[in-house]
Design brief:
two-stranded antiparallel sheet, mainly alpha
């Protein structure tokens, strides 16, 4: 994914704010999402195991096995859809599918370009040493991490403000939505990098809004 300005964007995160949204459904989404949380708990264990296998594959072959890459991408997609439905954004009332696939009809989407080649040297250090500054930043966004997703922090606070506003005005503030998606986009970029799925270092830049935009300058 290359823009006219030559900027390579291996991680593409898009989201569509559904309207209208229920004023009160968000109060019980934590219950409705429990089946997903149970499945994702097992999927994230598999994700970590697959990442370890991929680490050694990259170290010896400079390639991330495609089947393993597609599985981990599926876990991230599934997690992003659940996060978007629940308390990572609360941007839709459409129940997320139980699927590892791309699900183009769902309002929250994620794609990561498959890398034909990955650095043996970077695989040794990027997931811990090089990513430390990014971990510090997204730690502020998320407060705590669970499977790469927020359970508090700045994102949780902004989403709470948004849905309280929704409850009283029947509208999800657009500016808040754009900011929440921008913060989630940053988290997803770092997650993909730390999971060895790309060598492109995540930019220290807040790209807000539901659509990916071409950087200027």
């Amino acid at each position: 994914m290359t823009t006219a300005a030559g900027f390579y964007r291996p991680v593409k995160v898009t989201a569509v704010l559904d309207a209208p949204l229920s004023r009160w459904l968000w109060l019980v989404k934590w219950i409705l999402a429990i089946p997903h949380y149970i499945v994702l708990a097992f999927l994230w264990i598999a994700f970590l195991l697959v990442s370890v296998i991929a680490f050694f594959a990259i170290l010896f072959t400079e390639r991330y096995p495609r089947a393993l890459f597609d599985f981990n991408l599926g876990v991230l997609r599934w997690s992003w859809r659940v996060s978007y439905y629940a308390y990572g954004a609360l941007g839709t009332d459409r129940y997320p599918p139980f699927s590892l696939g791309p699900e183009p009809g769902y309002p929250a989407r994620l794609d990561i370009a498959y890398p034909e080649h990955l650095s043996r040297g970077l695989v040794l250090v990027k997931w811990w040493l090089l990513a430390i500054p990014q971990y510090l930043v997204i730690g502020i966004f998320t407060g705590a991490m669970h499977g790469g997703w927020c359970v508090g922090g700045l994102i949780g606070l902004l989403v709470l403000i948004a849905v309280v506003t929704l409850a009283f005005t029947e509208k999800y503030p657009r500016d808040l939505f754009d900011l929440v998606i921008g913060l989630n986009r940053w988290v997803l970029r770092v997650t993909a990098y730390a999971s060895l799925m790309t060598d492109a270092y995540p930019p220290f830049r807040l790209d807000m809004g539901g659509e990916e935009r071409t950087p200027t300058g």
